[in-house]
Amino acid sequence: EQPDAAAPGAGAISRVLIVMAMEKEAMPLVNKFKLVEAPARESIFPKGAPWTRFYGIYKDLHLDLVMPGKDAVFGVDSVGTVSAALVTYASIQALKPDLIINAGTAGGFKAKGASVKDVFLASDVAFHDRRIPIPVFDMYGIGARKTFAAPNILNELNFKLGKLSTGDSLDMSPQDEEAILSNDATIKDMEGAAVAYVADMFSTPAIFVKAVTDIVDGDKPTAEEFLNNLISVTAALDVAVTKLVDFICGKRISDL
Amino acid sequence: EQPDAAAPGAGAISRVLIVMAMEKEAMPLVNKFKLVEAPARESIFPKGAPWTRFYGIYKDLHLDLVMPGKDAVFGVDSVGTVSAALVTYASIQALKPDLIINAGTAGGFKAKGASVKDVFLASDVAFHDRRIPIPVFDMYGIGARKTFAAPNILNELNFKLGKLSTGDSLDMSPQDEEAILSNDATIKDMEGAAVAYVADMFSTPAIFVKAVTDIVDGDKPTAEEFLNNLISVTAALDVAVTKLVDFICGKRISDL
């Protein structure tokens, strides 16, 4: 045993990477944690990438909040799996985080107990729009994986627990619905399983915090309900992420 | 004007990155170009990434052929947009290629003139499974873009020209079909638009060479037809890529 390893605070989580897809979801947290935007000339990302990074010290933690940024052509947040995977990858390589938090909004299934403004931790992630009907490739496409288990977070912070299914569409086709049911998912987003895929590649523990903006199996159109609820649900998400970050402070990965 | 810029051969394409998704498609080219596999200890990719790289000198060109490699859990080729985007990104950063060739197999639409074993260059790429029915986000999701125009390749090498639509499923749902029609696509693959997205991000010219393994609007099941034709169509693909690489030798980007 090395003395350092036994010292108080040794092994405590130091560097937390928060990955979020939408600026509207992220800016309240940027303000709450007093993060500052990394200037372009000091970017950890290569020229050309639209990805953005805010960083700072919050209590004992180095916090980095990254986003895929605005699409160069269309100017909207670069949502979806490809951008989320890329910015997660580049951030892991540059920042070597101890822990990733993927925070965002999600659709929820009332048949599985979800309501608008609920905040979920994802116990599992999978894709619902990667159908490859060839043996073994089919399972690769679904890409189901358990997330990092954080029983103490779950017990102390009052989040709901559910499975998350990810796809690149905001709406849900009948084929998507069938796959989401097969994935046993309570919540549906556009990034989680891609972030999990990259985090697992580099053995970085990742926690998925998703706040419900719209009820997928309800009677309101998803896009309309999503936009109507985005601001208020973002507030619930930000409260949840703040509680989570406060809980993480001073703890080790094995304490979560 | 600098003397170097006017010297014979100045500005000639030097470094070509070939991105392929499946080992079965790539190995004949690895052999043809006498490429060798980069050993793990010298990898340009970080530990944990399943991506593989073969490299060598062929005539005047530095060739790198990269693949997303075998999935760590399932052992199959890591097909699809997320892996293709990641390995393209990491390869561009490490290798700074002058030109990217994304080569692979594709489904073809006979209604648009495609037959099995046809080899296409993609004039345009777009996604067909990223439906986001919110203004502007809808266009971001589709992500249609023109590819690098290579009129001399097209004139001299006898490829067909068509639009390419990309999605993460091998099959085609009714929603996919509608989007593919809307994308005016002649061919359908699982990586092209993601490779194009990353290549454009870093202003790297990219050429998409796709050989047709199966007729999507025909009467045979896609997975069966794909597997039955994979070997013979791969041979046609490899002939086409060899012709293309031979054509590129000694040329400038503006000569293509």
Task: Write up what this structure looks like.
Two copies of one chain form a homodimer. With 256 residues, the first copy, chain A, is of the alpha/beta class. Chain A has a single domain (12-255), classed as Rossmann fold (3-Layer(aba) Sandwich), CATH 3.40.50. The first copy, chain A, has eight helices and ten strands. Chain A has a five-stranded mixed barrel with strand order 5-9-8-6-10. In chain A, a hairpin with a 2-residue loop joins strand 3 (52-58) and strand 4 (61-67). In chain A, helix 3 packs parallel to helix 7 (192-201). The two termini of chain A are 23 Å apart. Mean pLDDT of chain A is 93; it is low at 1-8.
Q: Greatest contact pair?
A: A-B, 52 and 51 residues
The side-by-side strand order for the widest beta sheet of chain A comes to: 5-9-8-6-10
- What percentage of the residues of chain A does DSSP assign to strands (E)? 15-25%
Class of chain A, according to the CATH hierarchy? Alpha Beta
The SSE string of chain A, one letter per element, is HEHEEEHEEHEHEHEHEH
How helical, in percent, are the residues of chain A?
A: 25-40%
Count every beta strand of chain A, where a strand is a DSSP E run of 2 or more residues: 10
CATH structural architecture of chain A? 3-Layer(aba) Sandwich
Domain tally of chain A: 1
